[in-house]
Amino acid sequence: MTDPATSARKVRTAIILAAIALGLFLYTLYGGLR
Amino acid sequence: MSDAAHAIEHGHPHPTGFTRWLTTTNHKDIGTMYLIFALVMLFAAGTMALLIRAELFQPGLQVVNPDFFNQLTTMHGLIMIFGVVMPAFTGFANWQVPLMIGAPDMAFPRMNNWSFWLLPVAAIFLMGSFFLPGGAVAGGWTMYPPLFIQGGMSYDLTILAVHIMGLSSIMGSINIITTILNMRAPGMDMMKMPLFVWTWLITAYLLIATMPVLAGAVTMLLTDRNFGTHFFNAAGGGDPVMFQHIFWFFGHPEVYILILPAFGIVSQIIPTFARKPLFGYASMVYATASIAILSFIVWAHHMFAVGMPVTAQLFFMFSTMLIAVPTGVKVFNWVATMWKGSMTFETPMLFAIAFVCLFTIGGFSGLVLAMAPVDIQLQDTYYVVAHFHYVLVSGALFTIFAGIYYWLPKWTGHMYDEKLGKLHFWLSVIGMNITFFPMHFLGLAGMPRRIPDYALQFADFNQIATVGAFIFGFSQLIFLAVVLKAIRGGVKATSQVWEGAQGLEWTVPSPAPYHTFETAPVLR
Q: In terms of Cα–Cα distance, which of B427, B401, B428 is closest to B262?
C-alpha cells in the first residue's frame, strides 16, 4: 500500500505533466490561429 | 502465468479468461498485452511491406494498382511507428521499469489499463479504413496537406486514430514519469537507475512535449477538412508549409522516441554479455538528455526543399550534425564496454552488436542527408528510405528483438531455443542488409520514393531488395515460433538467467511472480 505522502506526490506529478500536455496542445492551436 | 495460479496468488477470486485481460491493472499483464499487440501489428505492417516490395520487383504494374500502393506505403509507415515500435517499447517499459526500480507496479494502474486498451481501438480504425469507400489514407504517413485535406472519410478516421494513439501515449508517459520519479526503492538514486529506465524517463518527457503538438496539427487538419477553416489551405489564405513545421516539430523528437528506449535496451544487454559494467554510465545519461534536447531544434532538416533562408538552412544543418556528438559518445561507450570483456554471443548480444554496427550506418547516412545542399538532391529518393530503415529496422526493431530474447526467460520462466534464435538473427541481419543497402544506390541514382513503377535502369537493385525483403519478412516466422515455444515450455530459467546480468529484475524468480516488490527492496 502506498503511503499518503507518496500518493499525493504522484497525483501532483501527474497533474503537472497533464497540464503541460494540455498547454502545449492549446498553444499549438493558438499558434495556428495567429 | 495461468489464470488459476494467478487467482491463487491473489488470495481472492479474480476474473479469468478475456475479462482478466480487459480489466487487468497489473503492469506485467499490460506489458504482455502491449508486446502481443505490437507483434500482431508487426505482421500486419510487414505484410504491407512485402506487398510493396512484390510490386517493386520489376518495373511496370503487376501486383497492386497505384492508389492501393500509396495506401500501403502510408499505412505501413503509420502502423510500424504507432502500432509496432512505440507499443513494443511501452510494453518493455511496463514489464521492466517497476522491476528495475523495485516498485510494486506502475503509479496509476487503472490509467495504465486505459492507455493500452485505447490502442486496439485506434488500430481497428486505421486498419478498418482499408474497407471504406476510397480505401485507406494514401497521402504518406506524414499527413501533409493539401493531400490530407482532400481525401475521403478514411482521412477523418486516421485523424481520430492519431488522436487516440496520442492520448494513449501521453497517459502512458505520465504513468512512466510518475512511477520513476516517485516509486523508486530506497537507495535507488537517479544516478543508480538502470540505463533503460533513464532512457524511458527522457523518452516519456519527449512524448509529453511532442504528442500534444501532433494532436494540435491533426486537429487543425480536421477543422480544415470539416469545419471550413483554412489553417493549411492556401486557397483560403492558409499555409501548407506551416503544417510541415508543426508536424516535424513533433516528428523529429518522435524519431528519438523510437530510438532512445532502444539505446536503453542495448545498454542493458552489452554489459551483461561482456561481463563488465557499462562504460561511462554518467556520460550515457547526459548523452541521452543532450540528444533529447537537441531533437527540438533540428526539425526543419526534414523540409530543406520547401525553401527557407540560408541562415535557417545553416542553423538546422549544423544543429543536426551536432547530434552526432552525443550519439558518438554512446557508440564509443558500447564499444568500450565490450573492450576486453569476457564476451559470449547469445542471441540478445548478437542483435545488440548488429544494432551498434548497423545503426551507425544509418547515423552516417543521416549525416549525409543533414547537409542542406546534398539533401536537396536526395530528398524524396530511396536514399532517404535506406537511411530511415537502417535507423528503424536495424535500430529500433533489432533492439526490440534483442530485448525480447534477453527478458523472455524472466517473463516466461523458460529459456528460448538458442539455435532457432541464432537462425532468426542471421536470416534477419542478412535479409535486412540485402533489402536496404541497395536502396542507397537507388537513391543516389535518383529513384524517387513512394512510386509503384520506375525506370528500367533501377530494376536490378530493386530485384535484389525484394529478394532480401522476403528473406527478412519470412524469417520473422522463426521469431514467432521461438516466442511461442518459450511460452509453452522449455528449459527452466533460473532467477539470474544470464551469468553477467546485474539489476533488481534478476533478483526475483523466473517467471516473475504476478506481484513483485510489494515490500520495497533496500539497496546499499
A: B401
| H or E element that contains B470 | helix B459-488
Which pLDDT score is estimated for B364? 96
Task: Say whether B183 and A6 touch across the interface (CB within 8 A).
Answer: yes
Neighbours of B509 (CB within 10 A): 12
User: How far, in Å, CA of B318 to CA of B322, rounded?
Assistant: 6
Q: Which of A13, A20, A29 sits opposite B216 (nearest CB)?
A: A29
Model ipTM value? 0.92
Q: B161 touching A, CB under 8 A?
A: no
Are A7 and B194 spatial neighbours (Cβ–Cβ below 8 Å)? no
Q: What angle do CA B103, B106, B108 make, to 5 degrees?
A: 135
The residues, any chain, with a CB within 8 Å of residue B273's CB and separated by 6 or more, are: B341, B343, B344, B345, B346, B348, B349, B352, B498, B500
Q: What three-state secondary structure class fits B381?
A: strand
Question: Using omega within 30 degrees of 0 as the cis cutoff, is the peptide bond preceding B145 cis?
Answer: no
For CA atoms B413, B415, B420, B426, the dihedral sign is positive
A3 vs B contacts (CB less than 8 Å): none
Contacts of B248 (CB under 8 A, 6+ apart): B299, B300, B302, B303
**Cβ-based neighbour number of residue B90 at 10 Å:** 31
The grid coordinates listed for B440 are: 542507397
The answer to whether the beta carbons of residues B450 and B68 sit under 8 Å apart is no
Q: Which pTM value belongs to this model?
A: 0.95
For A6-32, give the DSSP string.
Answer: HHHHHHHHHHHHHHHHHHHHHHHHHHH
Residues of chain A with pLDDT under 70: 1-2
Would an 8 Å CB–CB cutoff place B108 in contact with chain A? Answer: yes
Q: What is the dihedral of CA B34, B37, B42, B45, to 10 degrees?
A: -120
Positions of B annotated as catalytic residues are: 76, 105, 141, 168-169, 252, 254, 256, 267, 301-302, 327, 330, 449
Q: What is the pLDDT of residues B28-60, one digit of tens each?
A: 999 999 999 999 999 999 999 999 999 999 999
Please tell me which of the candidates A6, A9, A21 has its beta carbon nearest to residue B212.
A21
State whether residue B182 sits within 8 Å of chain A by CB.
yes
Q: Contact A28/B208, CB-based, under 8 Å? A: no
Vertex B192: Cα angle to B191 and B197 (nearest 5): 85
Q: How many CB atoms lie within 10 A of CB A31?
A: 16
Low-confidence ranges of chain B (pLDDT < 70): 1-13, 524
**CB-based contact (8 Å) between A13 and chain B?**
yes
B131 alpha-carbon distance from chain centroid: 27
Nearest CA in chain B to A18: B174
- Angle at which helix B398-412 crosses helix B459-488, to 10 degrees, equals 10
CA distance B204 to A13: 13
What DSSP designation does B56 have? T
End-to-end CA distance of chain B, in Å? 32
